[in-house]
Amino acid sequence: MTISDKHVVSIHYKLTDSAGEVIDSSDGGEPMNYLHGSGSIVPGLEQELTGKSAGDQLQVTVPPGLGYGERNEELVQVVPREAFGEVKDIEPGMRFQASAENGDAQVITVSAVSDTDVTVDGNHPLAGQVLHFDVTVDSVREASQSELDHGHVH
Ligand code: ZN
Q1: Architecture per CATH, 7-68+127-150
Q2: What is the mean pLDDT of residues 105-133?
Q3: Residue 136 above 90 pLDDT?
Q4: Is residue 41 within 8 Å of residue 55, measured between CB atoms?
């Protein structure tokens, strides 16, 4: 069976950045399952997996535009410390859930802290990065009707 829309695909994968640092990996764990065609993995990887089948191995280089997007410097903002209210120990690297102007949940990352201000970055941590995937297709099956209805794997 080959990979196309409406199929549940299991993959083992390793994701490295351009410096060769491993960002994420399924090594030593369960393969990752996803519903092909649902946009649940980055587009650049999803399109390369189309037509592959169990046992296939592939190396995919995904540019930012087909990955987590380009960085948007407008999403970097300096806010007064008081905006964090009760949170006392704010440090670079901390993540907070915020609501974007359109109401969507957005994860922001603290990038710098001074006595009075906190610089926050609403970009995805992997925005602007070229992603290198090393993938082995573990299995492919047809999605069930309820999986298609829900848009995710059960
Ligand atoms: Zn469900």
Answers
A1: Roll (3.10)
A2: 92
A3: yes
A4: no
Calpha distance 44→6 (Å, rounded): 18
Gap from CA of 144 to ligand 1 centroid (Å): 11
CATH number (3.30.300.160, 2.40.160.10, 3.30.230.10, 2.40.10.330) of 73-121 reads 2.40.10.330
148 CA → ligand 1 middle, Å: 9
What's the CA-to-centroid distance between 42 and ligand 1, angstroms?
A: 21
Pairing of strands 105-113, 95-99: antiparallel
pTM for the whole thing?
A: 0.81
Residues with CB under 5 A from ligand 1 (ion): 150
What are the pLDDT digits (tens) for 67-97? 999 999 999 999 999 888 887 789 999 998 8
CA of 151 to the centre of ligand 1 (A): 7
Q: How many H-runs (helices) and E-runs (strands) does the chain carry? A: 2, 9
* Cα 105 to ligand 1 centroid, rounded to whole Å: 20
* Band (98; pLDDT cuts 50, 70, 90): confident
Residue written as token pair 């764990």: 29
